[in-house]
Design goal:
193 residues, mainly alpha, 9 helices
């Protein structure tokens, strides 16, 4: 469990620098340059992510149950997950979804974390998904309050939304049918115990 907690602190600590210390971040950018900042940031974030994954995998083996969600919430989880992959892809594919959702990746993280918290109630799951949910909500609020930077306007792709929705739904189907089991070791379609 300690490795999971260290990974969460490292990962979200770095991802929160722009929220809690935006001027310090700007100073660091000026001191070490954009390439240096991104390099250190990427390496440390990657380390935090790896520690989080390994720590989560280890903690799941002896996980204590905090709450047992009703089986009916499992179906709500499936519904909440439907827009997650399309929103995630829309963050990188300029189009109407990106414009309307404003921050589609944060919306995807909020839905993903909420869906998982509705379906699973063990300590490691609540720590992991609760951390993602809390961070995404705080970041969403911070982004709204932040001074708008000069927008780098990207041209909308003619079929950006179609690509995001089509590939997103395909990815969701793949995760349901095989990828979740291969990557996480748990089938979301398995009957609950």
């Amino acid at each position: 469990m300690l490795m999971l907690i260290i990974g969460l602190i490292l990962f979200f600590g770095l991802h929160s620098v722009g929220i809690v210390a935006p001027y310090w971040r700007l100073r660091m950018l000026l001191m070490v340059g954009e390439g240096g900042w991104k390099g250190v940031y990427s390496v440390l974030s990657g380390l935090g992510f790896v520690l989080m994954i390994i720590g989560f995998a280890q903690a799941r083996h002896s996980a204590q149950l905090l709450y047992a969600p009703p089986v009916a919430l499992r179906y709500l989880t499936f519904v909440l997950m439907v827009p997650v992959f399309p929103l995630l892809l829309a963050a990188y594919l300029p189009g109407r979804i990106q414009t309307r959702a404003r921050h589609p990746m944060l919306a995807a993280v909020i839905l993903w974390a909420t869906a998982h918290l509705l379906a699973i109630g063990t300590v490691p799951d609540v720590l992991l998904f609760g951390s993602f949910l809390l961070w995404a909500i705080i970041d969403r609020i911070a982004v709204k309050r932040r001074q708008p930077s000069p927008a780098r306007r990207r041209l909308a792709l003619p079929y950006g939304d179609v690509i995001a929705v089509t590939l997103g739904l395909l990815l969701y189907a793949l995760f349901l049918l095989t990828l979740h089991t291969l990557l996480i070791g748990v089938s979301p379609l398995a009957r609950p115990l």
